[in-house]
């Protein structure tokens, strides 16, 4: 309802047409501000926009007193179109007075006189404006301080929107004043009626009409919030009056009119509701619907679509319960039909607002969730109708929609049939009559609800509706479709941790999959059902949710039998699989290490580790195998296994065995239980982004990964490398691979070596067994060596050609203890390719011999001992060493160098083969190890610990080496510093030997004594031989230089005649000297020692054995013993190949004694040579 404004025009009604367009341009009114003149709340209320209904005054009738305040004009306007004073005085003034008298007689209504001028008269007589018509109107009719007369210019608003601003403001003021007065009157009436609530005979409906009139006033002014407050208060007053008064004015509940079950809920025009209220003839049914429709209308005006839907859902639910209290007076399925219709009506009305872009996106998104709830509420009514009509069974999930007993739902339909109108919705009538129509209606409505829930992001609600569709398919014997729907649901409830719902759905899946002969799918569902028996945070297993006797459980069957049957099903179903299936982090089982220390096997190679398996199942379970995967620090994987065993309820201890004799600290990575073809697998790695957390129902992982330490089995097969005792640099290198059989009688052994790069490979076909007895198989695969028949307690040494560094060696072997068990040993072996020493040679040519100096240095890290250095002579060569063969061993520290000098004489024209330098050496570390090994072997050989010699060699040797200073040992070679500490060795020995600890401790003490008393003898096993081929060097030209001086003693400045003799020889040349050969010489001397006079530089033709003499003069420049100048000789003749040339000064050690002069003289020369 719009605010009404009356208008009248003078001199005649037709004059309003002159200003109609100007008035229309001001509408709707904007930005009205209202402040209550009465009451406590004086806050400013702003009305953004207000449409106004302009009507002629006569259209309101002569008796406006019969109209309500809202139907009366809020403002009376009189437009006076007159610019002539005479006309105004003659007729217009009287007509204005008559109009004003009729308006003032009407209470609570404002009035305004608007003088309309064209502006022409006023512009011609501007100086006479005080005598204009508008001034006369104001003087005649303005009363008090309020200005009720204004002037506007005709058609001015088209050019200037502000020209009629005063008119707009006056209209706003008049409407607001009337509205405020009306509100005060309505509120006063409401207060009076409310104060009489406790009086006898008080009626709610008159009170409702008075308060609704106030709400209508607010609505007419677009104050929808205030109007909604009035209707909310009316609703609260209704419920209060229902409690306090008899409410006899309503008389009956209602709902008996034809079509009441299908009327649009938000429409106020379904019936003449207000007339029924005024005549006290409205039922509770109609009144509640009308009141809610008015509340919804206000909410729609406010754009609160979601609020409409929320209130609608609450209203339908609560009022439906009220209607069921009078179920017997209503038609069969009336409440369900009305609820169904009301929900769809609200959804359709709200959806029109959303589709019409009348709300923002946020409101549209929030509406989706409430829309889904309304659609689900409507679907529940179909559940009730379907059960009553026999279309649906009275079982879960359909029975969840029932909120009354079955007897009430399926009550006698013939009782009071004449007074109970039938359901009028055609779709429901058809659904009751036909199962196919019902199913279509049911499925369509459910899908609409699912779509709305998914759009709102309410996953759980949509899953529940999916389950109801699956149940419908199952009830209709459409098992394939039902199974497909059911199978997608349980996985969602795992994340939501709703275990009971998950188990119930899985029960249906297994039943349907068994019927459809879907073995693999049934296996997965059964595993999931078993997993669902472990609730989150629980330490027990239970499946209380499984109540279907046709699936797994009959009446009286306990959890033990149920668990046993489920696991038997898993075993039988998984046996049909073509490959193993891994069940990761299955919460029914958990495994932990029983100890952090493993142990070695007693009579065979291998280690064992104890494991505790905890089963939450209430039954014993036979399993096929248990496996553990460990990892070394290098990343190698080690598997432990056990045979079949029976898991008891609770914890079971199992010992696992690994045929590989691993040692050191291993990290547990995986544990597995084999059950037929099911592998229950658990990760023991710490939680990380790459290793996600397992099922939370399983035992929580700790931040630390479990580790186990395995002792070294010194009787197991072992592999290590040795350097050959003799190395020839001109021959291929070899490595010695030692395989110690230990306790094992080896049936077959396969040996492989890996290198850092794929480019390197080893020639296994050239391998030789240099020690020990074994049969080499000729049919070995490429890249490996296969041997057979290795006896226990033997060592087989294999000489293998080396082409590069060795990274590790691996052995696969089979023993007589377990001939079918493949054992693997892999060792990262260290085989140094580089030698621990370096040899450099420097040659000095002489006319009759060659002097060769060999310099031996260490690798800079270890000390070295050299027992001998021998240069082997060949035919035509005589070699004489400078060092006596009886000389003592030479020790070379890391930063030292040892030199060995040899004199080589060659016979003339002899053809010389390469020489060979043989060094006998050992490193200080090798000597230390050899001394310790010799002592341990000698002591243990005469004891009862011969089988444990490897333990003594490893531990005792490591301890002694750690307490020995290599530098001191290299100089003295004794073990005087060793002290046997019984308190340190006792726990180590007791851990290894147990009851034989005292005898073992005595053996260790004897080893210490043997080393201390053994002196500094060097074992022969420590020495190694290095043979280096040495080519005899050649020299094209050897120049023999001799300087002969006339005097051996002179004074400073005294000239000395000298003769320089140069005799070249080609005796060390292998040919290739050109003829003729021209050599150049250059005499050099220190400038502070000699002044040379003569040919310092020159050339001469060289002949083998011929001497060339050159005379020069030397002048000494200082006193002292001065060495003679040196001579540099080089070939200058062109040659294809460069010629090697050296010079030997025959008297290089000769010096001249120069004495200081007895007298001195001073000579001064200028640069131009003129004597000063």
From TrEMBL:
Query: What is an annotated GO biological process for this record, any one?
Result: early endosome to Golgi transport
Q: Which part of the chain is the DUF7077 domain?
A: 715-801
Under the cellular component aspect of Gene Ontology, which terms does the record hold? cytosol; TRAPPII protein complex
- Protein's cellular compartments: Golgi apparatus
Q: Which UniProt keywords apply?
A: Golgi apparatus, Transport
Where in the numbering of this chain does the TRAPPC10/Trs130 C-terminal domain appear?
A: 1030-1154
Q: Which InterPro entries match?
A: DUF7077, TRAPPC10/Trs130, TRAPPC10/Trs130_C, TRAPPC10/Trs130_N
Name the major location: Golgi
Taxonomic lineage of the native organism? Eukaryota, Fungi, Dikarya, Basidiomycota, Pucciniomycotina
User: Where does the record place the TRAPPC10/Trs130 N-terminal domain?
Assistant: 17-309
Transcription as a keyword of this entry, yes or no, is no
Protein name per the record: Trafficking protein particle complex subunit 10
């Amino acid at each position: 309802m719009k605010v009404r404004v009356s208008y009248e025009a003078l001199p005649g009604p037709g004059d309003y047409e002159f200003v109609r367009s100007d008035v229309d341009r001001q509408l709707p009114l904007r930005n009205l501000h209202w402040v209550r003149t009465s009451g406590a709340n004086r806050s400013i209320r702003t009305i953004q926009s207000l449409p106004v209904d302009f009507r002629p005054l006569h259209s309101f009738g002569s008796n406006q007193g019969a109209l309500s305040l809202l139907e009366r004009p809020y403002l009376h306007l009189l437009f006076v179109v007159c610019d002539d004073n005479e006309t105004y005085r003659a007729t217009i003034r009287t007509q204005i007075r008559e109009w004003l008298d009729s308006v003032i007689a009407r209470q609570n209504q404002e009035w305004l006189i608007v003088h309309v001028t064209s502006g022409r008269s006023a512009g011609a007589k501007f100086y006479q404006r005080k005598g204009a018509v508008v001034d006369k109107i104001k003087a005649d009719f303005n009363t008090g301080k309020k200005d009720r007369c204004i002037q506007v210019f005709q058609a001015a608003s088209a050019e200037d929107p502000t020209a009629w601003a005063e008119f707009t403001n006056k209209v706003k003021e008049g409407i607001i004043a009337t509205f405020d007065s009306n509100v005060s009157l309505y509120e006063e009436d409401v207060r009076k009626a409310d104060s009489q609530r406790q009086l006898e005979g008080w009626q709610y409906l008159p009170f409702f009409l008075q308060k609704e009139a106030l709400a209508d006033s607010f609505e007419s002014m677009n104050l929808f919030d205030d109007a909604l407050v009035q209707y909310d208060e009316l609703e609260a007053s209704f419920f209060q009056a229902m409690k306090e008064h008899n409410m006899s004015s309503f008389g009956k509940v209602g709902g008996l009119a034809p079509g009441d079950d299908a009327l649009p809920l938000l429409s106020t025009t379904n019936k003449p509701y207000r007339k029924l209220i005024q005549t006290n003839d409205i039922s509770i049914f109609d009144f509640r619907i009308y009141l809610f429709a008015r509340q919804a209308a206000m909410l729609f005006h406010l754009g609160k679509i979601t609020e409409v839907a929320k209130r609608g859902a609450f209203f339908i639910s609560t009022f439906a319960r009220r209607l069921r209290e009078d179920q017997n007076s209503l038609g069969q399925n009336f409440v369900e039909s009305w609820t169904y219709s009301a929900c769809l009506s609200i959804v359709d009305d709200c959806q029109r607002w959303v589709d019409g872009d009348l709300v923002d996106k946020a409101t549209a998104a929030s509406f989706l969730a409430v829309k889904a709830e309304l659609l689900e509420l409507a679907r529940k009514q179909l559940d009730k109708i379907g059960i009553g009509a026999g279309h649906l069974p009275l079982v879960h999930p359909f029975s969840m929609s029932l909120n009354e007993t079955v007897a009430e739902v399926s009550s006698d339909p013939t009782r009071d049939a004449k007074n109970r109108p039938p359901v009028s919705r055609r779709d429901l009538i058809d659904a009751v009559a036909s199962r196919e129509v019902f199913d279509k209606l049911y499925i369509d409505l459910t899908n609409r609800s699912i779509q709305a829930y998914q759009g709102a992001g309410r996953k759980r609600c949509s899953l529940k509706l999916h389950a109801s569709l699956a149940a419908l398919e199952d009830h209709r014997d459409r098992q394939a479709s039902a199974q497909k729907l059911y199978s997608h649901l349980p996985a969602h409830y795992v994340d939501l941790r709703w275990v009971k719902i998950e188990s119930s759905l899985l029960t249906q899946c297994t039943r349907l999959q068994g019927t459809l002969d879907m073995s693999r799918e049934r296996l997965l569902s059964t595993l999931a059902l078993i997993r669902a028996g472990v609730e989150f945070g629980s330490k027990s297993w239970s499946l209380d949710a499984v109540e279907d006797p046709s699936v797994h459980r009959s009446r009286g069957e306990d959890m033990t039998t149920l668990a046993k049957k489920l696991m038997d099903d898993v075993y039988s179903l998984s046996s049909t699989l073509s490959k193993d299936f891994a069940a990761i982090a299955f919460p029914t089982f958990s495994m932990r290490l029983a100890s952090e220390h493993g142990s070695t096997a007693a009579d065979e190679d291998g280690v064992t580790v104890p494991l505790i398996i905890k089963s939450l199942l209430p039954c014993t379970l036979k399993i096929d195998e248990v496996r553990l995967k460990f990892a070394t620090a290098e990343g190698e994987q080690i598997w432990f296994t056990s045979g079949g065993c029976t898991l008891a309820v609770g914890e079971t201890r199992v010992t696992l065995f690994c045929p590989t004799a691993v040692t050191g600290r291993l990290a547990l990575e995986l544990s597995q239980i084999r059950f037929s073809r099911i592998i229950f697998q658990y990760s023991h790695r710490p939680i990380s982004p790459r290793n996600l957390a397992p099922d939370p129902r399983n035992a929580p992982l700790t931040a630390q990964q479990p580790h186990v330490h395995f002792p070294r089995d010194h009787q197991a097969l072992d592999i290590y490398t040795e350097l050959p005792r003799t190395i020839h640099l001109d021959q291929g290198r070899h490595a010695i691979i030692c395989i110690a059989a230990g306790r094992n009688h080896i049936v077959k052994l396969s040996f492989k070596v890996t290198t850092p790069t794929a480019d390197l490979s080893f020639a296994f076909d050239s391998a030789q067994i240099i020690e020990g007895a074994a049969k080499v198989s000729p049919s070995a695969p490429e890249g490996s060596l296969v041997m057979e028949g290795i006896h226990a307690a033997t060592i087989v040494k294999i000489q293998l050609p080396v082409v590069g560094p060795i990274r590790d060696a691996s052995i696969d072997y089979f023993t007589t203890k377990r001939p079918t068990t493949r054992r693997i040993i892999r060792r990262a072996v260290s085989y140094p390719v580089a030698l621990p020493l370096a040899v450099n040679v420097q040659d000095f040519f002489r006319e009759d011999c060659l002097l060769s100096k060999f310099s031996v240095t260490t690798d800079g890290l270890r000390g070295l001992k050299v027992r001998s250095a021998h240069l082997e002579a060949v035919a035509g060569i005589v070699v004489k060493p400078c060092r006596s063969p009886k000389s003592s061993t030479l020790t070379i520290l890391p930063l030292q160098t040892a030199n060995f000098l040899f004199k080589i004489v060659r016979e003339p024209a002899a053809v010389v083969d390469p020489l060979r330098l043989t060094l006998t050496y050992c490193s200080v570390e090798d000597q230390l190890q050899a001394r310790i090994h010799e002592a341990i072997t000698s002591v243990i050989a005469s004891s009862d610990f011969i089988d444990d010699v490897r333990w003594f060699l490893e531990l005792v040797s490591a301890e002694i080496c750690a307490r020995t200073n290599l530098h001191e040992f290299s100089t003295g070679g004794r073990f005087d510093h060793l002290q046997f500490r019984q308190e340190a060795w006792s726990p180590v020995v007791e851990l290894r030997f147990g009851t034989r600890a005292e005898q073992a401790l005595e053996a260790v003490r004897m080893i210490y004594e043997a080393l201390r008393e053994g002196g500094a003898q060097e074992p022969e096993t420590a020495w190694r031989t290095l043979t280096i081929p040495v080519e005899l060097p050649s020299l094209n030209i050897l120049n023999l230089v001799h300087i002969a001086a006339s005097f051996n003693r002179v004074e400073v400045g005294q000239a000395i005649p000298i003769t320089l003799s140069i005799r070249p020889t080609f005796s060390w040349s292998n040919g290739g000297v050109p003829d003729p050969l021209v050599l150049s010489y250059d005499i050099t001397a220190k400038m502070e020692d000699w002044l040379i006079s003569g040919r310092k530089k020159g050339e001469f033709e060289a002949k083998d054995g011929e001497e060339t003499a050159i005379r020069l003069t030397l002048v000494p420049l200082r006193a002292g013993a001065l060495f003679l100048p040196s001579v540099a000789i080089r070939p200058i003749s062109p040659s294809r190949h460069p010629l090697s040339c050296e010079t030997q000064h025959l008297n290089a050690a000769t010096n001249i004694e120069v004495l200081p002069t007895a007298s001195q003289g001073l000579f001064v020369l200028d640069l131009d040579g003129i004597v000063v």
